[in-house]
Amino acid sequence: MPSASTGAPVTTGAAVPAAAVPVPTDSRMAPGGPGYRRMSFALFLAGVATFALLYSTQALLPLLSSDFGVSAGGASWTVSAATGGLALFVLPMSALSERFGRRTVMTASLAVAVAVGLLVPFAPSIGALVALRAVQGAALAGLPASATAYLAEEVRPKALITAIGLFVAGNSVGGMSGRIVTGWVAQEWGWRVAVGTIGLIAVVCAVAFRLLLPAPRHFTPGSLRPRVLVRTVRDHLANPLLCRLYAIGALFMMVFGGVYTVIGYRLGEAPFSLPQGVVGSVFLVYLVGTVSASTAGRLAGRLGRRGSLYVAGATTTAGLLLSLAGSLVLVLLGLVLITAGFFAGHAVASSSVSHTAQQGRAQASALYQSAYYIGSSAGSTLGAVAFHAGGWAGTVAMGLFAVLGVVSVTLFGSRAARTAARRVPAPAH
């Protein structure tokens, strides 16, 4: 009945109007939101430092062959040792990031890698150089898996592919700038000054990264118990989708690692005979990777993840075939297509890992990074061996075989998805 004082109906026990119920909001970062730009730029710089250091000797392999009197295969170990060290240590480093935090592990990894980078110019022999590079790669192992896990925790799901694409774009800028800088510096002052310059650039990136990266707000410390780690890894390896993504990352990187390990030898020899600085400038095509990685999210939105992988594989194949031409312009266009296809495929595959893994994201990302850098190490060595045996056509054949693997794995995934969809029982009417 109406209230005596107000004439309003009594509402005791009535439901609270929907407008008065607080709606939970997602506090994770999104484009345009607070901290997103700082976070993106910080991880972009981390990507720059990681790839600049990791591949700092790749454009210098002909000079290393000449200075130390080793073959292309022997010089390629300065790249393979770094990527192999990263592949071996990325899983243990991811476990440390689960316990001590993503930002802490990334900061420590960059600090150690930079310190080793400042020692690399003083290597007295090819053996010492390979050893230092292996240590540097192991130190860098704390970056890739921790970065993708950080993004998966701190960025809203709809923005995840874009955010990881920006990190991968930083990889491409680091790889490009590192090779261009070393090419021109080495032409004037030798390879030792060149790798020392990269070390100093990495120092600046590391300091800026630590100052800019926002403190994590959604990180929950995990356990360092080996039994927990083994169980998490076992669960990830038992997931067919994750295993397919790991294989795709490794195969794409075999192509990329093989091509860019020996391209300096091809362009430095007849009929091109380009000087070292110009060979280093060829890596400007990495800018294409920056664009393709950062736009991978839109591509996946239109074609789906598997459709994007097919496009990336087809683009890489076209680039490999075009690079067989005797024209420098066509070779460079081939490198553009290879780079665009690789970075698009890598961005889609790596973001799919973070999206698929609901628990132990750092370990899931670490397994992807391990497979990815095993592919890089294998591609660098196999690409050099194939080049020694059959010239550039041998390296292209190795790359085409790897792309065939990418397409085969993706086709298998498509068939598995259709089979699983048919097994879902129809809803009862």
What's the mean pLDDT score? 83
CATH topology: Growth Hormone, Chain: A
Rg value: 24 Å
**CATH-assigned homologous superfamily:** MFS general substrate transporter like domains
Q: Could you give the count of β-strands? A: 0
The CATH architecture would be: Up-down Bundle
Distance between the termini: 45 Å
Give the overall shape.
Answer: globular
Helical percentage: over 70%
Structural class of the helix and strand makeup? mainly alpha
Question: Unreliable stretches, pLDDT < 50, 5 or more residues?
Answer: 1-24
Domains, number: 1
CATH class category label = Mainly Alpha
Number of helices, counting only DSSP H or I runs of 4 residues or more: 15
Q: Main beta sheet, described? A: none
The proportion of residues in beta strands is: under 5%
Q: What is the string of SSEs from the N terminus onward?
A: HHHHHHHHHHHHHHH
Topology:
Layout: H1 36-54, H2 61-68, H3 72-100, H4 102-117, H5 126-140, H6 144-154, H7 160-189, H8 191-212, H9 226-237, H10 240-268, H11 276-281, H12 286-294, H13 296-322, H14 328-356, H15 361-423
Task: Offer a quick outline of the entry.
By secondary structure, the chain is mainly alpha-helical. 76% of the residues lie in helices and 0% in strands.
